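Forwarding the complex inputs:
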Amino acid sequence: MITNEDYKIFSDISYWIESNRNHVPFIPNQDDVLHSKDLKGLSKNYKVLKTEDNTTNGMQAMAVAPVKNGKADTSEIVIAYAGTNFDDELDLMTDAQTVVLGNKVLIPESQQLDLTKHNQLDELGIPKSIEYVDGQVMTAQMFFEEIKTNYPKATITTTGHSLGEYIALYISAENGLKNVGFNGPDPYNILSPKAKEWIKENPGMLYNYRNEEDKIGNYGGNGTRAEILVNMDMGGHIKDTLEFHGLGTWEFDEEGKLVIKDTLENREARQTRAEKKMYLKMNELSILSKRLKASGGGLSSNEEIFLDNTQALLAVDYISKSMKIGIETVVNIYLDAIAEAEETWKEGIRLAQSIGTELSYDEILNALQAGGVTKHSVVFEPAAYYREKISEALEIGGNFDHLVFEIKESIRELEETDRELANQIEQGSIIG
Amino acid sequence: MAEEGTKLSYKRERISDMRKKRLYVIIGFLLVVTIIGVGGKMYMDKQNRNDINIDKKVEQKIAKEFATNYIAPNDKEISEIAFYKEPVDQKDFSGNRNYFFYFNGNKQWTVGVSVEKETGEIWAFGSDVIQLSHKEKPKEVKNLTIKHWRDNSDN
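Prediction (whole assembly, two chains):
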């Protein structure tokens, strides 16, 4: 499993790929091993499969895979994209032209002032007389495609920080990949209709951790619904805006999970994360289900399928277990919220009684109502909303149980149809 | 006539007063600029001294941690660490400040270190030229010589 902290470290290290930087600890290169002993918080060793430092548009990217038994296990690959380097004009131009203006191509600065002189536009809506280069999101897509071609069976995920997360979110949405990143502006305005549709259907795949006070990372709204907006309790001074955008502000627990402090301000962030996780597990199971249905022909067609099915059963059990935990977490968060609403109301009444000692209970209620505060608005309305959310979670749980049952049944059916071959495989007479 | 003379003298006095006022304003302005300049310089010097002291403390921590956990490529203990380059903040939003040293007097054995500036946590050791090797068990080095960037006469 790749932890949140692993993703953070890859986002951090991707800044070091730029070859003309001489003030970084090391420059990651292809075949380098990133050792967990050298990089605090990394859960295991990772091998660098490929890096790219595009000097035409300023993009840097790195693909890594976990090392298992001394070799890169390319069934899982993370692609990390680098954020803005203040010293790199190309990065600053990308911030302005892509993130702010929504252009995927990059137009050299010297030509921008003459835009009004040109009137013939090409298919991208850019004056024909202007020379432009592929922007960072375009070469990021090429980088992904190269990795996908070289490792077709890999489950690829993306990450990044700031501009890097903007690019990573774009690549994930366009190609249907999981993303975990930090302080990324939202790339929804440059996404294709297909990617926008995918986002709607896959609410658990994108995790863009943002700091409530970070004016830079929170740019562009939340069209991708990737945002998990965390209150970092860092104060709200404008002068610290750059600090709020920092990658180093995030904390992780011993298991490498990003810490969202258990405060009232963070309730929504915790709810969002729990819901996303629940949807993600559901998604994993659907993928498994599709894979099993695709194998269709039955067990006898290939002994590998039998092995796949055995692994599938294990995976179903694992996902099923974590899904149950996910649903429980979601339900508990909402139950807590209902209890907190009740408590807030009681506390409010107690406070009002201590101030207006001469007033009766009814008079206090009337006074509160005059100020727009009623038990209905404080307790009943939020409680109804949270109960609705609980029902949704339980319904998803019901669908999930049904899917688990179907998958297990289909695996059993496959086994039944060719028990003899299964026995042979188990006895090792077919496999080596 | 006498009245005109009085008026003229009055005018001259006003002009003289205005000149004096202008002079006072200019002197006041220069004084304020000087005070701000000197104060600012003192403040910046103090900040620099603070930054240097912070860097020295971080270098100390880095040296101890490295010597405790790593061994030299020739399998010998780390006995000396020399910071050869000024520490720098990364020019991005990562919040990292990076430090650079070589060890045991060998200028080829260069190592880079990344520190989270806000917390002072050392989170990355790396090198472009050597393979870093760990001790089997971490062990503190007692007579470790540390040459700080600011004091290192070799720089």
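The beta strands of chain B are 70-71, 80-89, 96-103, 106-116, 121-126, 133-134, 145-147.
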